[in-house]
Amino acid sequence: MANPNLQNSASIFGNTAYVIPSSAATATTSWTYDGTTSLTGLKPATNSVNKINSIIVSNTTASAATASIAVANNATFGSGTAYYVAYQISVPPNASLIIVDKTAPLYITENQSVAAFSGTASALTFTASFEVVT
Known about the structure:
This protein is an all-beta fold. It has no helices and ten strands. The protein has one domain (about 15-134): Jelly Rolls.
């Protein structure tokens, strides 16, 4: 597992990823970024770290839905322990909620992963902005 020294970073690349959980109350880890690339659990590449600057959840339905975000201590979500950043927060209909912002970023290393949960299938869109630091 690499945990690069952020002070001596060789490069920092900005990205935005999104996921729409298609099953209720199931961990969804297939974040899409760069148009079509899947990034399982927002897990960084070898010798890098992903700095999550924000996670915004949007409810695209006419009914309230619950949202959760968890970080696991294993690169394969479900194999480790899940630590919830947000747990079953009600997102009003046709509204958005900031779960993580730049004032309290998350650093995801090679042995961690991030999952999104929705209480209602296909009701919520999770969008994360992150920096890949090598």
